[in-house]
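# step 3/5: fold
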Amino acid sequence: MPLRKLHLVRNKLTDAQATPLTASLKQSRDLDSVFMSHNEMSNEALGMIADAFSLNTNIEEISITHNDLSLTNGVKFLESFKNMPKL
């Protein structure tokens, strides 16, 4: 069954948890909603997840508020949004 909605709000994801999550996101390209606010993810974890999001072109709704994006990873997220025409 394809993964359509991802709701990981307030989970305080660590870098170690972001690695398998990123691998899953790269394989599952059916996401349409992503809610990952308030996770306090590290800059490295956010960069990995931004790379994975760039492969998920069906995303219509996304929330990553209250995570510490650096300029570099903020730009990665913005670039991934270009691949999401339904966003």
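# step 4/5: annotate
The first strand starts at residue 5 and ends at 7.
# step 5/5: archive (pending)
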